Amino acid sequence: MSFFVRSKQSSGQKRGALTNRKTKKRKVESKHSKNEEITSSEDEELPSTDKNNVFSDSEDENETAQEKEVRLAKVFLEEIEREEKARLEKDELDQTVISKRLKEDHLRKTGKLRLTIAEQYKNIEISSISTLKCKQQRNAITSICISSDNKIIFTGSKDGNVIKYCLTTFKKLAVIPFIRNHTEDISGHTSEILSLALSTDNKYLAVGEKTGKVYIWDPNTLKHIKILTGHKNSILGLSFKKDSHTLYSCSQDKCVKVWNLDEMAYVETLFGHQTSVTSIDTLYKDRVVTSGGHDLRVWKIPEETQLIYNGHSGNIDNVRLINDGHFITGGDDGQICIWSVMRKKPLFCVESVHGMDESNDQPKWITAIGTLINTDLFATGSYDGFVRLWKLEDNFKKCVEILKVQVEGVVNALMFTSDGQKLLVCVSREYRLGRWITVKNSKNCIRIIHFNMQLLT
């Protein structure tokens, strides 16, 4: 039985086909195509995509797949040469440097790159902790995303506002505001923001609302592009496949959906979870990991199959990939677990990571996990007043705590910059999924933990 839903070619007059009256109405509505909502239930009836909304890497429409691949490879090599020359400040560049970069890039994309850097964080002195806070986000900040060059971050909150910050000057740059009702030109959100994602090339910003809609924005101009609809409840997680415009979304409606932003189109729906899907992550492969209720699922998109994992005694609220073969989970049982895609039971578990809750004598929930991709380092957050850093050992079969940093409040999101220099901590008075956890004396803000060392180049 397939767990994937695909749209079928319609032939003849079938249920849902447009009558002449509906066709005329659709033609009238097409005048306002810039505010058009793309729905997963209506993908068969959509008009052809406007040329202005289609992005192509080809310089020539008649270019073959092989010619395109060769051209892009040449562009990539030229880019590497420029970067290495600038870094080494040399006119002549040793070919071994380029070969090393190509090898690292290949290993990174295949999920086989392994960088052991966690030991450098052990008992390190924190150089400083910066705070980002603004009046537009008085309610809980639920999500955060960062540009691939580590210069820009976006934060979303239950106020319905999305804030754009500069990570070099630590100043607010712009706001996508909360608005009560949409006009012809969409300029903001109408509900709580529960998830954010930014494409690797910084071309698309995806924002998930409590209404079940996914808004697509231009992160540079903050101009609205499209609304993706189809989910029937809150969007709890968003993730872009690396180096692509494939977007995955998970929702309280128990579904995972796949979108193609090159065509601004719905692709398919992944069914299987029996409760709300609370977290989602993906890297370079056509594979996505999700958590919801007591189970985890790894979806192999091309094979149209899914793998089910069990191990936690409670709900699994967070899942993050450390590479394409391993991932970390945390939930309301207070455990963190290390997993391999090849095994359906965890490789290693740590119980009561953030201590016990004195009010109910239960372990404090794991409310956030952040990983430094393709390394042996990850971080966890809760509401015990500390963010904890962990080192993976013995080929992912063990982890040990190496550092803890004091941060007051409920940690709703954690994200490392790609160079490992900073850890972004999304702190709030309440938990992003509800008010079951509250810390009254904390502030709704972003804490930026600075590590004063050069790790990844």
Automatic annotation (TrEMBL):
WD repeats: 186-227, 228-269, 309-341
Listed SUPFAM superfamilies: WD40 repeat-like (SSF50978)
Transmembrane segments: none
Region entry Disordered, spans: 1-67
UniProt entry keywords in alphabetical sequence: Nucleus, Repeat, WD repeat
Subcellular location, principal: nucleus
Keyword Nucleus (UniProt): yes
Short name of one Pfam family: WD40
Compartments reported by the entry: Nucleus
Assigned GO CC terms: nucleus
Protein name: U3 small nucleolar RNA-interacting protein 2
